[in-house]
Amino acid sequence: MSKTVLTEVLTGVRSPDWTLANQQYLMTAIDQIRQLLERAAEQSAQSKQAMQAKASAPSLHRSSEEIVWPVFSPPDSAPDSESTLDRLCRLLQLSTFERSILLLCLGAELSRLFGVLCAQIHGTSQTACPTFGLALSIFPEAHWQALTPESPLRVWRLIDIGAGTELTNSPLRIDERIAHYLMGMTSIDQRLQGMMTAERVERSVLPASHQAIAQQLAVIGLDLWPAPVVQLCGSDGATKRIIAIAAAAEQNKRVYTIAAETLPTELTQMNTVLCLCEREAILNEAVLVLDCDRISSSTGDGHFAQLNLSVDRFIENCRQPLLVTSRDRRLQQTRSLLSYEVHAPTTAEQREIWRREIGGSAIARNFHPSQNGSQNGSQNGSNNGLQASTSASSINRTIDHLVDYFNLSAPAIKATCKKVQQLSSQNTEHTSIPDLLWNTCLSQARPQLGELAQPIETLATWNDIVLPEKEKQVLHTIAAHVRQRSQVYENWGFSGKSRRGLGISALFAGASGTGKTMAAEIIARELNLDLYRIDISAMVSKYIGETEKNLRRVFDAAETGGAILLFDEADALFGKRSEVSDSRDRYANMEVAYLLQRIESYRGLAILTTNLKDSVDQAFLRRIRFVVQFPFPDTKQREEIWKCIFPAATPTKDLHYRRLSKLSVAGGNIRNIALNAAFLAADDGAQVEMRHILLAAQSEYIKLERPLTDSEVRGWVSEATQALS
Description:
alpha/beta; 32 helices; single chain; Rossmann fold; about 50% helix; 6-stranded mixed sheet
C-alpha cells in the first residue's frame, strides 16, 4: 500500500483529486443504471400490456444488454487507490446484482428522473420508487438471494425495505450513511454519534514494554477470521488507547472507540448498534475498541446490570477485530478473551521519556536553579535534588527525582512538559523549571477517587503537633523513608534482596483528637505530596469482589502521583480476623489479604489510623513498617497545645494556659473549644478571654456527654464568672 493511500486509511482524509474522481466514477456507474431504466421504460410505453405481464412474473425478464461498468482511475493518485463503491462491494462481498440494486437506490435519492422512470416501468405513479421486482426485471445476473435476510444488503442494512403487500413490490431505499459513504464522506454514522469516536492517529514512540504488547497484538492478527477478542486491563486509559492505535497501525487500520456506558440496554436497539459498529469498522478498515473503563464488570443491580448484559452481548456477538479496555478483567460466558495487563512504563522507560520530552523542548534551554529551594524540601534544609543548574546533570537529577515520586504514563509526561513549557513563558513569579515540573506533576497525577477518598489540605507544620519526642522522631523517620526510597532500594540495591515489604506503611493508634490526622498532614506537607482520607465504609461492597476493585481503584489512582493514603478508623476493615464459618467470612479475609498485598507493593506511603490498637489483628500489625502510639496528652502537653492553638492574628486577653491545661481533653477537643471561643468573642466584639473559653468548654463537654468538673476549672472559673457578671 502506498504512503498516500496509507495516510488516507489511517486518517480518513481524502485528497480533493480523489474525491472528485470518486464522485465522477460513481455518477458514471449510476448513469449506467439510468440507461437500463430508460430502455425498460421505453419498452413499457410501447407495450403496456406486455410489461404488465412481465411484472407479474419479473424473474423471467432480463435486459438484453449487459452493464459495462467504468474503470476507476483518479488523476495523479496511487495506482492502488480504490473507489468507495468498489471498496464497499469488495469488503461486504456484494454480487454484481446487489451492486446494481444499491446504485439503483442511490440514483433514486440523487435524481427525480429515477422516480419518474420507476413509475413508468411499474405502470403507476404511485410506485415511483425502486422495488425488488423492478430490479429482477431489468438487471442481468439477477438472483433471489439478494434480498434474503442472510444477504449482505440485509445483514449490513445497506437498504431499507418499506411496507408492501409483497416483498417484490415493497419500496427500497438506500441507507443514509451508505449513501454518504459512497459519495466519499468519512463521518461516522449519525446514529453512533456520542457513542463511537474515530481516534486521532498520532505517531508516538512507545516505551519498549508497551511496544511489545502492540507488536504481540499485531502478530496474533487483528485481521484474522474469526476475529480475536483482546482485553487490555489497567487503570491508565490513555496508555491503553495508544497501544490500541499502534497495534492497529501495524495492520494499516484505524481505531474506532465505543464508550461502553453509552450502549443501549434494549435488545433490538443493541443489535442495531452492534451491526452499525461492525459496518463502520469494515467499511473504514478499522479496529473496534470497546472502552469499559467507566463501568464495573460486576453484576450490580438496576441499570448497571442491564448495561453489563449489553456489554456481554456486544463482546459475544461482534465478529470484527475487537479490543476491550477495562480496569479489571472481564469474564465472558462462551467467548474467551486474550488479556494483557497494561502497567505504567518502567522507571528506566519513564526517565527516557522525560529526557526525550525535555530535551526536545524549550524547557531545557530555560532550566535554571530554584531561587527559593524546592517545594519538596524538608524544613531542615535537606537537598531534594530540585536545586538545578543549566547542566545536563542537573536536568538528570531533576528527572530522577520526579521518577522517584511520580509514576506517570507517556501521555501524562508529554502533557506535563507541554504545560510547563506554557507556564515558563508566562512565569511572572520566576518559579524555577524544577518547581514548575514538580507542581505540574502533582496536578497531572492528582487522582480522581470520587466518593472513595477525600483530599485533605495540608496546612499543619511540625510546630503545630505536641507529642513525646520519641513518637515525633518516628514521624521524621517515616518522612525520611519516603524521601530516600529510591536511593536505598534502587541505588543501594535493597530491592534486589526481596520484592516483599518494599511499601512504606504506618499505623497511627490513639484516641480521637490525639493528632493522628495532623501527623499525616505534616508528613504530606514535608514531602509536598497530596494527602487523601479513604472512606473505608464506601469501599466495602456487598457484591463479592467489588471491595477489591474499589481498593484497586484507590491504589492505582494514588500510585500515579505518590499520594499519601490515610485509611481512617482502619480497624473497621483490619480488625482481628474471624474464623471462617461462611462464605462472607472467607471473602472478608480475602479483602484484608488483598489490601495487605497492595500496601506492601505501594510506591507511596499508606497510613492507617485506629482508636483501638488492640483490636487490630496481630498478623496484620507484623506487616506494617511503623506503629506510632499517640498518647492522650498530659497536663504539660495540653498546656503546650493551648499556647499554640490560637493563630497569631487572633486577639487574646489574660489567658491562663496552665489553668486551661486542667481541661482533660485531647488536642482535637482543645481546637474545637478554641475555635468556638473565637466565634463567641468575635460576636461579642471583644478579644478572646477566659469567659469565652468557659462557654466554649461547656458546649464541648455537652457534646462529649461529660460533666465539666470542679478540678478541671478550679482557679479560672470564678474569674470568668466575675467577668461575665
